[in-house]
Specification:
The chain is α/β, with parallel strands linked by helices. The protein is built from six helices and seven strands, in the order βαβββαββαβααα. β2 and β3 form a beta hairpin.
Length: about 190
């Protein structure tokens, strides 16, 4: 059975180092572990890396469009690679988790995350795995929109590489050890 691992984010250099693109950043770590680079998929809506990850057959994907429109490209990849929802892992930013922490879960709502909402609507279910990478809440009265689309602070950037590796480890653990054991290790 093939695993489809999708990192959420926005395309282009403007968004490359923003908090909202942490899913893309984790997907880049996983692509390096697979020894591959993202290439345009025949569906046209996504870039993919195909190969083995943690000994399992895997496809890494990321939408070529904006996060709020992730559902169409993810749905196309699910259909093309014949992936069941329980073998779909979506990596995304999470405001309700502090920077430096992450949570792994199966199913649930979209909690106001438009990328998740788009995916749920397109594949017809929310019963997929999520690796929720904490970015924390905006300071003071800063709007959520401005906060997620700004680059990480200089302090955060120092710790970010370790954090991205840990999120990638959580994805691999989910694929090889299952949800319960992965949660016991990474949900803290």
């Amino acid at each position: 059975m093939t695993w489809l691992v999708v990192g959420l984010g926005n395309p282009g250099s403007t968004y490359a180092s923003t908090r909202h693109n942490v899913g893309y950043l984790v997907a880049d770590v996983l692509a390096a572990r697979m020894g591959g680079t993202f290439k345009k998929h025949s569906s046209g809506g996504a870039d993919v890396v195909e190969g083995r990850l943690a000994g399992e057959r895997a496809v890494l994907g990321r939408s070529r469009g904006y996060m709020n429109e992730s559902g169409g490209p993810v749905s196309s990849l699910v259909k093309y690679f014949d992936v069941e929802a329980d073998h779909l892992v979506v990596i995304h930013d999470e405001l309700d988790i502090d920077f430096g922490a992450l949570r792994v879960k199966l199913g649930g709502g979209d909690n106001g995350h438009n990328g998740l909402k788009s995916i749920r609507g397109s594949i017809g279910t929310g019963d997929f795995h999520r690796v929720r990478v904490g970015i924390g809440r905006p300071p003071g009265r800063q709007s959520v929109h401005d906060f997620v689309l700004k680059p990480y602070s200089s302090v955060e950037r120092k710790d970010l590489p370790v954090y991205l590796e840990e999120a990638a480890d959580a994805v691999e653990s989910l694929m090889t050890r299952g949800l319960s054991e992965t949660q016991s290790v990474f949900n803290r």
